[in-house]
Amino acid sequence: MDIKDEDDLLYWLYKLKRNNNEEVYPKVSEVPKGKENVITPDIDLLKINESGNVKVIGYEVKFPKYSRKNNTFSLAEFYKGLGQSLCYFRHGVEYVVLVVGLFGAPQEKLDIVKKTKQNIKGTWDFLSIQIPFLKSYMNIDIHSQDEDAVHLYLIPQSSFSVYFDKEINYKHDSLLRRKFTYAKNWIKEMERKKE
User: In this structure, is residue 1 part of a structural domain?
Assistant: First the structure.
């Protein structure tokens, strides 16, 4: 994987899902379509799954920066991603996966990748114990240059209820009806960049 930034990671994830014949849309910014319906944060990657228990899955993608000076990955992006992931539920998403990419460390310092994975997993384990329902609706997927992917989730068996709130239910229905805006031009730009 030649991943240098968050866009590369998102494009890799997009292509992976598309190659598996999954219906995905990058950078969803309006639900439903219309400038008055801009969502914040945008949904980095939206997956619509017509079969199964969970129909609408959102992927938040984060790319913590590696510091050569300190030989560390800054986890600020990871923590930011946790918060943004939780906001997806306001936009009609039933399940969220926070995708973290750990790339950029020199080959001789790959121990920092393993250590960072352990830190993220430790944080996730702590949050899962303190907020027991969290694992029912959200999980974390870590990809790294050592290609030892860490999947801290299983296929979602349950989903966040979108029916308790009229606005959330409306957005959920808009997502299922494909009434949203996503970054079609970004896909074309990334395809040109990767040629």
Answer: no
